[in-house]
Design brief:
Layout (H helix, E strand, L loop, with lengths): L11 E2 L4 E4 L5 H8 L2 H4 L13 H10 L5 E7 L10 E9 L2 E8 L8 H12 L6 E7 L3 H9 L3 E10 L4 E11 L2
């Protein structure tokens, strides 16, 4: 296995999986999973259907030294799982603040995978954040439960544009103070 070294982005280990930087070889599994309409419709930024080159562009951005978002694959090979069970990211906002985003393949829904990935990323705090923000679509209460179970506090209602839906979607907004 070729290990990709991404500056300032560590591999984060859990007992079930590793959060590791993306690799160019991940394109097929990310395309398969992110191309599922159930995944795309629950994220703000994944289009459906996926346009040609979208995942290659995501991987290229995630490997760039001047990136503003760190993206990790949830890699379950250590427990005989898939190489890409989902993705999790931290986007730098400003003043030691970041926004977390995540999705998992429907094959791994309701297995605690997203909660464990969020907990691991928060515990590692690779961007040395003081505050992490997150949001969940109001028609996706499972994603909101992940955030609440990981200690995030509700801030209020908002809305965001969902590329796959082509519409604004009501969201719940959360934050987690790490100081």
């Amino acid at each position: 296995m070729l290990q990709t070294i991404v500056p300032n982005q560590p591999v984060i280990e859990t007992s079930r999986f590793d959060l590791r930087p993306l690799r160019t070889s991940d394109v097929g599994l990310i395309t398969l999973n992110a191309g599922d309409p159930r995944v795309a419709m629950n994220t703000a930024v994944i289009p459906h259907p996926l346009p040609p080159g979208a995942i290659e562009a995501l991987i290229a951005r995630s490997l760039s030294e001047d990136r503003i978002e760190d993206v990790w694959a949830i890699d379950g090979q250590k427990s005989s799982g898939s190489e890409v069970m989902g993705l999790i990211s931290l986007s730098r906002i400003e003043r030691s603040q970041s926004e977390i985003g995540y999705w998992t393949s429907p094959a791994f829904w309701n297995a605690g995978l997203a909660s464990e990935a969020v907990e691991a990323l928060v515990r590692a705090n690779p961007q040395d954040c003081r505050t992490i923000f997150a949001s969940a679509f109001q028609d996706n209460p499972a994603s909101a439960r992940v955030l609440i179970n990981c200690g995030f506090c509700y801030l209020g209602d908002a809305e965001t544009f969902c590329v796959a839906r082509g519409a604004k979607v009501p969201t719940w907004t959360y934050s987690l103070k790490l100081d």
